[in-house]
Amino acid sequence: MLLGIDLGGTNIKAGICDARGRVLASDSIPTEAHRGPADTLRRMAELGRRLAGRRRIGACGVGVPGPLDLARTRIYVAPNLEGWKDVRVPAVLRRLLGVPVVMENDANCAAVGESRAWPPCDGFALYTLGTGVGGGIVLNGELWVGASGAAGELGHMTVDPHGPRCGCGRCGCLEAFASATAVARAAGRPAHEAFRSRDPKSRAAVARAAWALGAGIANLIHVFHPDLVVLAGGMARAGRAILDPVRAEVRRRVFAVQLAKIRIELSRLGDDAGWTGAALWAARKHRPH
To answer: What is the rounded distance in angstroms from the CA atom of residue 96 to the CA atom of residue 126?
Structure first.
């Protein structure tokens, strides 16, 4: 059996699955990042042990935010997690759980999990729309992380150099417009309420998020033309309220011939994508005996 853990800015999601990704148990707890890395990692391990019960876990995969070192031994910094700088997640969890632990970027894990839920394709891109905006790219069935291991940071693509400041410290990132945090800040209410509201402030915040996300996806299409782009994370629960305006914005920004072979869809795995992908990545990197 495999344990997968998805560390988010708001919640920690975890579950147990087999090597085919079939879910056996799952649950989530609040992240409470203000309590610090040591406390959060302890609670992550407790959640994993509780879900495992009497099952023997062969390996654990954990998806985490922020740039990671190439060897995947530590988080350099996680902008949406207070105090998370130079944290050696795998070493700590390995000690707490007593099993091999593999770490990968959270959105990359979600991309691995979600890509398994669709027919095989040459190019797959995932946007995770939550506290921040993450991204993951799968090319010809392989996770693409680039030369330094940091490729796929789609949320930090610049869509407006004069735009608002992002949590990373730079201005105009896609995340500064299209994350649930950004929508809530602009709308003056939680993002899930903004998508249902008809008041002008909420409508403007949602429209701005769709514009930025559509622009980011259009840039991605011009660069490598994926077969499939999937929107995941908490804001994807808005369904057609986010999908339709994003598709419309992409249509305005790319050539018609490019759109003929591209699909932009909502996640099939929902909240299970991140932790499932982390577990499957662990299975791939460390074959349990």
So the answer is: 31
Beta strand spans in the chain (E): 2-7, 11-17, 23-30, 59-64, 75-77, 85-87, 101-105, 123-129, 133-139, 142-143, 228-232, 263-266
Q: Decide which of 21 and 27 is more confident.
A: 27
What Å distances lie between residue 140 and 45, 203, 226, 281, CA to CA? Answer: 33, 38, 10, 16
Per-residue exposure over 136-173, b if at least 16 CB sit within 10 Å of its own CB, e if not: bbbeeeebbbeeebbbbbbbbbbbbeebeebbbeeebb
Token representation of residue 286: 């460390």
- Domain hosting residue 68, numbered range: 2-109+271-285
Q: Does 166 lie in the same domain as 42?
A: no
Cβ-based neighbour number of residue 30 at 10 Å: 12
Q: What is the pTM of this model?
A: 0.89
Question: Residues 213, 100: one domain?
Answer: no
> Does residue 168 contact residue 153 with C-beta atoms inside 8 Å?
no
As beta bridge partners, residue 62 has 5, 103
- pLDDT at 287 (0 to 100): 65
Q: What's the structural domain count of the chain? A: 2
In angstroms, the CA 60 to CA 27 distance is 15
Q: At what angle do helices 273-285 and 106-115 cross, to 10 degrees?
A: 90
Do 152 and 261 lie in one domain? The reply is yes
